[in-house]
C-alpha cells in the first residue's frame, strides 16, 4: 500500500509510467496550452476511474483511444489548494491493464509552478522569460498528473515557443523544427531516466549556451556575452581517473591506483570514489574510508560509506569498531541513523 497525504490521486489503483507533453507557450496570455498523454497501468482489480492531481488548470477534454470520457473536477479543495480530476473509464479494468489517456488542457496565471517574467525583468530587456519550479508538489499546476514521489516516470515533450526564444527542459534535447512560417519553433525533448513528477522542469527565454565540459552546458541570456571561463581542473581530474578506471576494468592488478589519485577531490568526489572501491571490495581503500568518515561529519557522506563498508566481506567489524569509537563525533540524528544501518 502506498501512502502520501499530499496527493489526491488513486495511487493504490493506478500507476503512471510515462508522460508525453505537447504544449504551446503563450506569453501574451501567460499560459501553456496543449495536451498531455499519460501511459498508465492498473495495480488493483476492478478499477473504474482515474484520479489525478490538478491545481489551477483548465481541463478541456479527456479521451481514451479517441473516445471522449466523462470527467469532473472535485469541488473540494484540499489544504494545498488542489483539486482532484476524476475520470470515469468506459469499463472496469483488471490488474495489470495498460492504457493511455489524452487530456487537453491549459495552465492559468494562478498556477504556482510557473513564473512569468516581463522583458523589463530580464537582463536583455527585450524578450519575456518563464521558468518552472515543481518541487515540492507544484507539478499539478503545470500538468494533470499523479503528483507524488511514490512513482517515478519517464517523459517526452514537444514545446512550441515564439521566435527567437529557446526552450530547455530537465530532459535531453532530441530535435527542433521551424513552424508557422518561421514565427515559432518546436523543441523536442526526451527524459529516459525515471524521475518523480517534481523534477519535470521547463525554461523558455532568449537563451545562449556555453559548453564547459564534455557533457555540460551553461545557459543564460546572451546579454552581456558570456565571457567567464570556468575552472575545469576538478572535472578534468575526475574524467581522467574515470577513463583510467574504465580501461582497467578487466585488470587483476590495480597497483597503478592509489589514494593520491583523489587527493585533489572535494568531499563529494572523494566519497563517490570510495563507494566505487567498496563496491569492488578493494580492501586497500578501507583505511582511507575510515579516515574520511572520522574527519567528515556530514550524514550525506558518511552514512552510505558506513553502510557499504559494513556490507563488504571483510569490512563489517571495521565499520562497527570505527563507529563505536567515534559515535560522539557525529550529530545525534546522524549517529542514530548510522547505528541502525550497521548493527
UniProtKB/TrEMBL annotation:
Residues 233-342 form the Peptidase M1 leukotriene A4 hydrolase/aminopeptidase C-terminal domain. PANTHER family: LEUKOTRIENE A-4 HYDROLASE. GO terms for biological process: proteolysis. This is Leukotriene A4 hydrolase N-terminal domain-containing protein. Keywords: Hydrolase, Metal-binding, Metalloprotease, Protease, Zinc. The keyword Protein biosynthesis does not apply. Belongs to the peptidase M1 family. InterPro entries: Aminopeptidase_N-like_N, Aminopeptidase_N-like_N_sf, ARM-type_fold, M1_LTA-4_hydro/amino_C_sf, M1_LTA4H, Peptidase_M1, Peptidase_M1_C. The lineage of its organism: Eukaryota, Fungi, Fungi incertae sedis, Mucoromycota, Glomeromycotina. GO terms for molecular function: metallopeptidase activity; zinc ion binding. SUPFAM superfamilies: ARM repeat, Leukotriene A4 hydrolase N-terminal domain. GO terms for cellular component: cytosol. Pfam families: Leuk-A4-hydro_C, Peptidase_M1_N.
Amino acid at each position: 500500500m502506498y501512502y502520501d497525504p499530499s496527493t489526491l490521486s488513486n495511487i493504490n489503483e493506478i500507476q503512471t509510467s510515462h508522460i508525453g507533453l505537447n504544449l504551446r507557450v503563450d506569453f501574451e496570455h501567460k499560459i501553456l496550452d496543449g495536451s498531455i498523454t499519460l501511459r498508465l497501468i492498473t495495480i488493483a482489480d476492478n478499477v473504474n476511474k482515474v484520479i489525478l492531481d490538478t491545481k489551477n488548470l483548465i481541463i478541456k477534454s479527456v479521451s481514451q483511444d479517441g473516445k471522449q470520457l466523462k470527467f469532473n473536477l472535485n469541488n473540494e479543495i484540499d489544504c494545498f489548494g488542489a483539486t482532484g480530476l476524476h475520470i470515469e473509464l468506459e469499463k472496469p479494468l483488471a490488474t495489470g491493464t495498460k492504457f493511455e489517456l489524452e487530456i487537453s488542457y491549459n495552465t492559468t496565471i494562478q498556477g504556482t509552478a510557473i513564473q512569468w517574467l516581463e522583458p523589463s525583468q530580464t537582463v536583455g530587456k527585450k524578450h519575456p522569460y518563464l521558468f518552472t519550479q515543481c518541487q515540492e508538489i507544484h507539478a499539478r499546476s503545470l500538468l494533470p498528473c499523479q503528483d507524488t514521489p511514490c512513482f517515478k516516470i519517464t517523459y517526452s515533450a514537444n514545446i512550441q515557443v515564439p521566435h527567437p526564444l529557446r526552450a530547455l527542459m530537465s530532459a535531453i534535447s532530441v530535435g527542433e523544427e521551424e513552424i508557422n512560417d518561421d514565427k515559432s519553433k518546436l523543441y523536442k525533448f526526451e527524459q529516459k531516466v525515471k524521475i518523480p513528477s517534481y523534477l519535470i522542469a521547463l525554461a523558455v527565454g532568449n537563451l545562449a549556451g556555453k559548453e564547459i565540459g564534455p557533457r555540460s552546458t551553461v545557459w543564460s541570456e546572451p546579454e552581456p556575452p558570456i565571457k567567464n571561463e570556468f575552472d575545469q581542473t576538478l572535472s578534468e581530474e575526475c574524467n581522467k581517473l574515470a577513463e583510467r578506471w574504465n580501461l582497467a576494468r578487466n585488470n587483476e592488478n590495480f597497483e597503478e591506483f592509489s589514494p593520491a589519485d583523489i587527493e585533489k577531490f572535494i568531499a563529494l568526489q572523494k566519497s563517490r570514489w570510495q563507494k566505487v572501491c567498496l563496491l569492488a571490495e578493494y580492501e586497500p581503500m578501507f583505511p582511507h574510508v575510515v579516515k574520511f568518515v572520522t574527519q567528515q561529519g556530514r550524514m550525506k557522506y558518511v552514512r552510505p560509506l558506513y553502510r557499504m563498508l559494513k556490507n563488504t566481506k571483510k569490512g563489517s567489524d571495521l565499520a562497527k569498531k570505527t563507529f563505536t569509537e567515534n559515535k560522539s563525533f557525529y550529530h545525534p540524528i546522524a549517529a542514530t541513523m548510522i547505528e541502525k544501518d550497521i548493527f
